[in-house]
């Protein structure tokens, strides 16, 4: 049986506790997935929104071909990101701010690309967050996700279900299935799945890309 989605307050409190040690603990663990998502975004270039930007671990993975805006629910995490920005090493990062991804303040079609690294399995309503990402990305733009996704069958799935019951207080949900992402795209006529691939070398993380279909040309 799947566990319910995480409550917003659980995630906020958990990541406030994680903030002081997040880079040291999660930086190496998430490195391959983080770089894969950023590389995909760099190939598109332009204005990029990082949903769940956290401490700014991904800042090094972008360059002058991009303009990065970051949002996160956790102010202690963003304090770390702002300290990185203050060094002057990341001129492509234009700003970070506290914002709920379920209800973004950005106008429609603001960004060329939206990136959510290790986020979509943690939010209270993943489908609503995906719809908001779809709203703020331009037609022809992409939503890039990277995450561990539920194995669904076999020993790995059983371990993930067992772990899920014991890690919710840490802000983790290891048994989130790809089927939910696929169902969201199928219910949205302007969203198409363009890529799904395991990240080498171990395939622990999966990269998933959706494209907001371009508006039809006027007759």
Automatic annotation (TrEMBL):
<dbReference type="InterPro" id="IPR029063">
    <property type="entry name" value="SAM-dependent_MTases_sf"/>
</dbReference>
<dbReference type="InterPro" id="IPR013216">
    <property type="entry name" value="Methyltransf_11"/>
</dbReference>
<keyword id="KW-0830">Ubiquinone</keyword>
<dbReference type="GO" id="GO:0032259">
    <property type="term" value="P:methylation"/>
</dbReference>
<feature type="domain" description="Methyltransferase type 11">
    <location>
        <begin position="49"/>
        <end position="145"/>
    </location>
</feature>
<dbReference type="GO" id="GO:0008757">
    <property type="term" value="F:S-adenosylmethionine-dependent methyltransferase activity"/>
</dbReference>
<keyword id="KW-0489">Methyltransferase</keyword>
<protein>
    <submittedName>
        <fullName>Ubiquinone/menaquinone biosynthesis C-methylase UbiE</fullName>
    </submittedName>
</protein>
<keyword id="KW-0808">Transferase</keyword>
<dbReference type="Pfam" id="PF08241">
    <property type="entry name" value="Methyltransf_11"/>
</dbReference>
<dbReference type="InterPro" id="IPR050508">
    <property type="entry name" value="Methyltransf_Superfamily"/>
</dbReference>
